[in-house]
């Protein structure tokens, strides 16, 4: 199968639509990590992602009869744009079914390339089902985003370019993984010619379907899929990609949201390109690999796979970047509620850059302050700050990895209620689109008074809301039953220390 795939890659027809992208050096990163770091610039494709390669190659294999009838795909993202462009160049009718939550910018981009957009369903599965119905009805040909040998062969041309453009030492290539089409193509070609080069897949930790499949030695369906990096938010690795990569990939690394955000900034600093989170995923994995293995003097290449991000999302990405770099510690510190204690706390902290500081009177004996402190990356410096404060007699809670604190508490003003009552706290996530917040509100239970509410639009595909409700302890299970029935993804956060210290 490997040889047949390599032949298909070498015969792939992509350059009538795609361009050969350069490999950019990353001097700042290289110096910081003591390795030569290179970035393959797929963000420079005409559709701002590598997806045009696979889509075009697949379409180039169609018969004249298939082309005359038209093509169809379900996609909310880069595959849709790649397919729309490929179809336009070939003069073929293209229909793209997108979930209704698709950001307007992506719908417009697909329409601008001449494809017909059908908006259907709230999630990808419903859109895909409708696409299959339309295919049966009209005789369209379905163009899959990753689970197809011709799509894989198109993506594999990136591997051909890498080996041709960089003939010197190359120790590892880091590839982002969604459904596995990209890594299958790159791994097949590179391993066939240069088995010494390590191929390392990088996945978002909440959509790590390749890692799960490798561990189980079979494809598995993830129960929940995080959508922060929507380009790679796939619940099951493709069948054809898995057959290829299970013996070719050396390792899979997973990274979290903050690490991806930090990598967006790193790419910007070295190349001035703004990557989407899926596009920066491979660099986040590369950095983690260097930190974990301690390698030095190697040549490591990552693929910046795309740059299709909403501008208003950058605000959120920037906010999380310091955390991803582990350059900011978020701490809750308890100080005495008396004159001079603020000053004493600052003296104990010493000459450190404070990124955030908020305080509100709680009672006559103690106060809790929410403080962000700039620290050196790596965790040791953060630990040193915490130790220093503890040695100074302060009670310190480290909230640096606490999602509730980072998403909501640091933006909430108002503090504690003046009278005591029983409150239960829930954090929700729902697909973002016009009217989604209203929809969410109407579905919230009306039997319990709402005592806290926080929502911020990050320009992301998913909205995040924090809700406090006055729930008598006997009613807790009723609330859980109700919330399970309405089906929004949620977390019960009443015991979270960030809430207990600042809001309860
Ligand atoms: C920007 C970006 N990176 C990576 C991927 C993952 O590619 P694959 O699904 O072939 O693994 C995608 C998929 O759409 C993407 O859009």
Write the layout of secondary structure elements.
Blueprint: H1 2-11, E1 23-25, H2 27-33, E2 36-41, H3 51-60, H4 64-69, E3 71-74, H5 78-90, E4 94-98, H6 104-112, E5 116-119, H7 124-138, E6 141-142, H8 149-165, E7 172-176, H9 181-193, E8 198-204, H10 209-216, H11 239-245, E9 251-255, H12 257-271, H13 277-293, E10 299-304, H14 314-324, E11 328-336, H15 341-349, E12 354-360, E13 366-374, H16 380-391, E14 395-398, H17 403-407, E15 423-431, H18 436-443, E16 450-456, E17 462-470, H19 476-486, E18 489-492, H20 497-502
Parallel strand pairs: 2-10, 3-4, 3-6, 4-5, 7-8, 7-10, 8-9
Antiparallel strand pairs: 1-2, 11-13, 11-14, 12-13, 15-17, 15-18, 16-17
Helix pairs in contact: 1-8, 1-9, 3-5, 3-8, 5-6, 8-9, 9-11, 12-13, 12-14
The structure holds pyridoxal-5'-phosphate.
Cofactor: pyridoxal 5'-phosphate
Keywords: Amino-acid biosynthesis, Branched-chain amino acid biosynthesis, Isoleucine biosynthesis, Lyase, Pyridoxal phosphate, Repeat
Domain ACT-like: 329-401, 424-495
